[in-house]
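In this section we walk through a basic example: taking a raw amino acid sequence and producing a predicted 3D structure, encoded as discrete structure tokens. The instruction is simple. Fold the sequence below.
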Amino acid sequence: MQPPFRIGLGYDIHRLVAGRRCVLGGVEIPSDVGPEGHSDADVVLHAVADALLGAAGLPDIGQLFPNTDPALKDLDSARIVERALAESDALGWRVGNLDLVVLAERPRIARHAPAMRTRIAQLLRVDPGQVGVKATTKEGLDAVGEGRGISCQAVVLLVRK
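The resulting token sequence is shown next.
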């Protein structure tokens, strides 16, 4: 018997590099640095997609969207979330809620959190009240705390349709 809900955890981390476009949660953020990666390197949407896929018992984004595939170069990470949502939807799941935290020293996230929340809700086809977006720093600890990287953790609740 299938449970009436499932929980998924997603995590992503990217190095920050100068001159790279900074897209987080599907929102372009003015910054002198951006996440390095094969796609647009949106750590927020990558964590969201992995949380969805994990909750649904599906392969992770590395298997579905390998960074060795030249066709995926500079891919808009919204496409990754849309596929993860479609795959979980096909298995009879819908999003109950999503909560995430962005860990970064730079760029500053807090003032962009409302736009990120709105965009993520659009992608998940839920009310913005079902999406939590928070930001914190690493207090100078590790590579993220030194401003050399950015990471995101996401938790999603999927409920049976």
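Looking at the output, two observations stand out. Strands lie at 5-18, 23-24, 27-28, 33-35, 93-103, 131-136, 149-160. The two ends are 15 Å apart (CA to CA). In the next section we compare this with other chains.
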